[in-house]
Specification:
This protein has 100 residues and is an all-alpha fold. The protein has a single domain (2-97), classed as ACP-like (Non-ribosomal Peptide Synthetase Peptidyl Carrier Protein, Chain A), CATH 1.10.1200.10. 72% of the residues lie in helices and 0% in strands. It has helices spanning 2-19, 32-35, 40-51, 57-63, 67-97. Helix 1 packs antiparallel against helix 3 (40-51) and helix 1 (2-19) crosses helix 5.
């Protein structure tokens, strides 16, 4: 699990550094609200594309201020998505058995 979490962090930092190329190194305490004036829409779309998730922009803006916040936010969404897929798999097994 540690390797997966690290790759999430690396991917997020790569997306951020691509958008904010004026910053040489993106630290975990990099603060979007204080450090840059930016439109978060493009950042959100890039993260959605990279991780194949849906992000509600209002929710994201409320909860994400730093890179650490973003990493945790994406990890939570990925965990919820994984859980949803597991339940769909279980449910599909019941459909095959015609148990409801």
């Amino acid at each position: 699990m540690k390797v997966i979490n690290m790759s999430i962090e690396i991917k997020i930092k790569k997306i951020i550094s691509d958008q904010f190329s004026s910053y040489e190194k993106i630290e975990n305490n990099f603060n979007f609200k204080n450090d840059v004036e930016s439109d978060k829409s493009e950042l959100i779309m890039d993260i959605e594309d990279e991780f194949d998730i849906f992000i509600e922009e209002d929710d994201f803006v409320k909860k994400v201020e730093t890179v650490d916040d973003m990493i945790n936010y994406v990890k939570n969404l990925l965990g919820e998505e994984e859980e949803r897929k597991e339940w769909e798999e279980i449910y599909s097994r019941f459909e095959i058995l015609d148990i409801r």
